[in-house]
Amino acid sequence: MARSTDSKENNKAALEGARICVLGSGPTATEVLKNLVLGGIASFTVVDDVRVGPRDLGNNFMLEASSVGQSRAAAATALLQELNDAVAGSFVDEAPDALLAANPRFLAEFSLVIATQMMEAQMMRLDVACRELGVPLLCVRAYGLVGYLRASLPEHCVVEAKPDNTIEDLRLHRPWPELTAFSRCFDLAAVDDVTHRHVPWAVLLIQALSAWHDAHMGRLPATAEEKTQFRTLLQSWQRSAAGVPMQEENFDEALAHVRKVFAPPTIPAEVAALMRDECATALTPGSDIFWVLVAALRGFVEGEGGGDLPLEGSIPDMTATTEAFLALQRLYRERAEADAAAVEARAAALLKRLGRDPGQLQRAAVRLFAKNARNLHVVRWRRLGEARGAAQGDVLRGALASEDTGANAGLLLLLRAVDRFHAAHGRFPGTYDGGLEEDVSLLRARLAPLLTEVGAPGSAVADDLVGEVVRFGACELHCVAAVMGAAAAQEAIKLLTRQFVPLGGTLVYNAMASTSSVFPL
């Protein structure tokens, strides 16, 4: 419980200490900030030089009619602060591009930069600047009925992934000596009926596997026939009255969990890949402590763990007496503590070898790492420029050809095309009083080379989709901004707290079809 409390406090502190810079002050920007301010960040700074106009009042709830003509960044900041007076808010009444050109290190003081409504070239320049400063970047955009979201940073290490489906490692296939001794304390043939139906199911399976090993030279049940025989062995231990099996829930539970014996948990492929990663196998004095712990984990698996990861330490509910359950729970916790201590000792030795102070290891953090060893994740992002290169053609070409993702992949390319349209014409398609058909042709002309880059035919993006994007007129609809603001805030919290696994690619939200796709770009 202490470890869990420490973890929650650390994550809360990470969020409460976060300093957020948001570039832009439109509805997407204020929707992101609304969620983060309510979540309890430390402070935020809005950078924008736009004045509030009548159109802003129709799509931004963080502006009032009295704000028309004033700095939009200032007006939005004032109302956002009213949501949570514990959060400090400030603004810079300057265009983001101009500010960063004059003061490239302006972003260095922030925990996270969130860029809203930026075009392709702007995002690429910002990505370079943020990577040089070591500041995570999150790009979010609402363009008509399309949303775009992508993070960009070299690497993000996650210890608390909190997966929806977890694997229980009770080490039933290979119990350690203390667990074996505990299971032998229950003499199933000698105990009374009440005790018999309160023997924990984990103990029943350990005893059954021990009996199986004795008869099968230490092998696990492998074939379908052997698995049936194992179940029959377990059922034969149930008691009966007048030839009728007694109701014993612990045996029902054991039979329901018997697969844990047949298929003991293995090391997940992603964790195995991390232990082989060059960052773990070739440590340097500057290595992140996460990679030092991964290297220590590899040593543990090869040594004390005997091929297994550290024990997580918790056990599920099971029919048992309070005394038996608590005793079993204590055994698992003690083993988990011992495994974590072994990982810590290995990590300390590695730090010492690197010329670093082993004292920088926090015991609670190491315990948390060992407890979550089965769910470790590392997410790496390409630079935004690399994600737009021809090398990624296979991904988009395949997505365009798929019925499920074709439209959304087309929208991603169209977002790039509208930016190229703007670079050529000084405006977005559909934003002048002339006919839309001319802009449809012009946008299709900007899309064509993008399709060629990814090796897709010109017909891969339907004319209707091109026409819809022109009809958007580059508007920033509040309904789309609200969805993208919520998604961006969620990703921001993942990055800040290092809990849950952030999106490793580009999210495209299609409000026309109520669908979304994540592309590994």
Q: Keywords, please?
A:
ThiF/MoeB/HesA, two-stranded antiparallel ribbon, Rossmann fold, NEDD8 activating enzyme activity, 8-stranded mixed sheet, alpha/beta, single chain, ThiF_NAD_FAD-bd, 10% strand, ubl conjugation pathway, 22 helices, NEDD8-activating enzyme E1 regulatory subunit, 521 residues
Textual characterization of the structure:
This protein has 521 residues and is α/β, with parallel strands linked by helices. It folds into 4 domains: 2-156 and 476-519, Rossmann fold (3-Layer(aba) Sandwich); 200-260, no CATH class; 269-379, no CATH class; 384-472, no CATH class. The chain is built from 22 helices and 12 strands. The chain has helices at residues 2-16, 27-39, 72-81, 96-102, 120-133, 177-183, 193-196, 201-215, 224-235, 249-256, 259-262, 269-276, 278-281, 289-302, 322-353, 363-371, 384-387, 393-401, 406-425, 436-454, 463-472, 478-497, and strands at residues 19-23, 43-47, 88-92, 112-116, 137-143, 146-152, 156-158, 240-241, 244-245, 377-379, 506-510, 515-519. It has an 8-stranded mixed β-sheet with strand order 3-2-1-4-5-6-11-12, sandwiched between helices. Strands 7-10 form a two-stranded antiparallel sheet. A two-stranded antiparallel ribbon has the order 8-9. β4 (112-116), α5 (120-133) and β5 (137-143) form a beta-alpha-beta unit. α2 (27-39) packs across α22, α8 (201-215) packs across α10 and α20 crosses α21. The two termini are 40 Å apart. The model is unreliable at 1-5 (pLDDT under 50).
**CATH class bucket of the largest domain:** Alpha Beta
Total number of strands: 12
Average pLDDT figure? 93
Distance N to C terminus: 40 Å
**Sequence stretches where pLDDT stays below 50 over 5 or more residues:** 1-5
Shape: elongated
Helix content: 40-55%
**Total helical elements:** 22
Classified in CATH, the superfamily of the largest domain is: NAD(P)-binding Rossmann-like Domain
- Main sheet? 8 strands, mixed
User: Structural class, judged by helices and strands?
Assistant: alpha/beta
Any idea what the radius of gyration is?
29 Å
Arrangement of strands in the largest sheet:
3-2-1-4-5-6-11-12
The CATH architecture classification of the largest domain is: 3-Layer(aba) Sandwich
Number of separate structural domains? 4
Share of residues in strands: 5-15%
